[in-house]
Amino acid sequence: MNTIQANNVMPETSAANNLKSIHTWYAIVDCNSFYCSCERLFRPDLWNRPVVVLSNNDGCIISRTDEAKRLGVEMAGPYFKAKPLIEQYGVTTFSSNYNLYGDMSKRVMDTLRFLVGEQNTEVYSVDEAFLALSGFGATDYTALALHIRQTVERWTGISVSVGIAPTKVLSKMANHIAKKNKQSTRCVYVLDTPQAIQQALAQTPVGEIWGIGRRYAEKLNSFGIYDALQLSLMPENWVRKQLGGVVGARLLKELNGEPAIGLGDELVTKKMIATTRMFGTPVTALQQVKEAVATYIARSAEKLRRQKSVASVITVFMVYKTEQLPGAHFRHGPSVSAFIVLPNATANTHELIKPALQLAAQLYQTGKIYKKAGVLLSGITPAGAPQGNLFVPKSPNANERLMEVMDNINVSMRNDVLHFAAGSTGRNWKMRQELRSPRYTSRWKELPEVR
Q1: SS in 3 state form for 19-52?
Q2: What are the C-alpha distances in Å from 69 to residues 77, 118, 177, 228?
Q3: 312-329, pLDDT tens digit by residue?
C-alpha cells in the first residue's frame, strides 16, 4: 500500500475560518424514493406498505420504498430474481410511468423556485435540486430546511429530504445523513458547525463523496484514504495530481467548507437530442426496425422544434443479441451505428425520417436478433439562423406550419394521434409496461375519480 503525508491541520480550524466568511449556503432537496412516492400519491392505500418501480421493459428495480428495502429487495436487481420475494410479501409493483413522474417533478421544482427564486434554483436531476440560500442572513437553517420540506410535501404530496451546508459537496453529505436516519433527523440535516462537518466527513466513505466515482475511490483506498475526513486533510498539490487537476482542487475546497462549485445554469437548449428504447420483444425484421427508428426520429424532432432548433446530423444505432455463456456477467450486446450529415439543417419530421431509415437499412443484418435501437440528432443550431450550404439551394420551409399543427394536436390529444405512416400503428416492438399505473395528471381519460 502507498502511504502519503497529510496536512497537519485540525479540520475544526479550517472549517471555522471558512464558515465565518460564508455569505451563501447551499441546500439540496432530494425526493424520497421518488418514483414510488409518485405512485403512492394517488394510491393512499399503499402508504407504509412496500412498493417498487421497474425500469424500461420491466427489467430491473429502479425505485423502492424503505419497507421494500427492509424485506431484502435489492436496488437495481433484475425483477425476475426478486419476483419470488416480491410475491411472498405482497410487494406492490409498478412499471415506469414517465408521464406521471415528469409532471410531478415539474411541480416539485416549481415549488422550490417559488420558495427561493428561480435564479437560486439548479435542477440537478428529475428528483434533485440545489438551492442557493443567499439573503437569509443569520438564519436557523434547521427551521428553514423543515419549512422547505413541509412546503414541498404540502403543495405536491411528494416527500423530500433536505441537506444544508456551506458548500454543495457538503450539502450532499448532509442530505445523505438525513435520508439514512429519517426518524431522528425528520428528513433534514444541517452542517453548520465545524464539529458537525468533521463528524460528517469522518462517517462518509470516499466512494460516497459527490464527484468521486468507483475508480477514484479504489485509487484513494490504495493510498490508505478511506473517508472524506482523510481526503480533506490532503495537500492541494497531491489532490490536483490524483483527482483530475482543477476538479480535484475544487472538491478539496468544498470538503473544507470553502465554496468552489456554484449553481449551474439550467440547460435550456440541448446540444444533442437522443431517443432510444429497449424493444418490448426481440426484433428480427427490418420493417420493425424501421418503424421503431421512424418513431424515435419523430419524437426527437418534436423535442428539437420545442427548443426552436434545427439539426444537421443524424446518427442511428442498433444493439443486437449475442449468446451469453453460462456464468458470464450480463452484457447488452454489440452496438452498430452510422451517421449522415444533411445538406440543410432541418426540424421537419419527414425530412429527418427518410435519411434515418436509409441508415437503419444500411445497419440491418439478416438473422440478427435486435434488442434496442436509437437515434441521435446533433449539429443543432437555432432555427432562425442555420448554417447554409453553398452547393445546395436552400429549400423554403413550407412545412413549418404543418409541423406546428401536428405538435399542437399531439400535445392536446396525446398518444401520437397524428404521426407519419413510417412509424406504423401496431408497434408490437414497443417497450413493455405491463404494470403501468394510469397517467393521472396528463390524460383526461385517466384522471383519478373521487367518490
Answers
A1: HHCCCCEEEEEEECCHHHHHHHHCCHHHCCCCEE
A2: 12, 35, 17, 26
A3: 999 999 998 876 656 555
Scored b (16 or more CB within 10 A) or e, 348-383 reads bbbbbbebbbebbeebbeeebebbbbbbbbbbbeeb
Q: Which of 160, 143, 155 lies closest to 114, judged by CA? A: 155
Stronger pLDDT, 414 or 296, i.e. the higher one: 296
Residue 305 has phi, psi (to 5 degrees) of: -70, -30
CA 219: distance to chain centroid?
26
CB 318 within 8 A of CB 373: yes
3-state secondary structure of 359: helix
The number of C-alpha atoms within 13 Å of 194 and in the hemisphere containing its C-beta is 11
State the Cα–Cα distance between residues 138 and 116, nearest whole angstrom: 16
Q: Do residues 92 and 50 make contact, with C-beta atoms less than 8 angstroms apart?
A: yes
- CATH fold of 273-423 reads Dna Ligase; domain 1 (3.30.1490)
Beta bridge partners of 372: 278, 319
Task: Convert the pLDDT of each residue in 189-229 to its tens digit.
Answer: 999 999 999 999 999 999 999 989 999 999 999 999 999 99
What count of residues does the chain have? Answer: 451
Instruction: Calculate the average pLDDT of the chain.
Output: 87
At 325 the pLDDT is 59
Domain boundaries, the chain: 273-423
Whether the pLDDT of residue 10 is over 50: the answer is no
Q: Angle, to 10 degrees, between the axis of helix 286-306 and the axis of helix 349-363?
A: 140
Scanning the structure block, which residue is given the C-alpha cell 406550419?
401
Instruction: Find out whether 257 and 239 touch, Cβ atoms under 8 Å.
Output: no
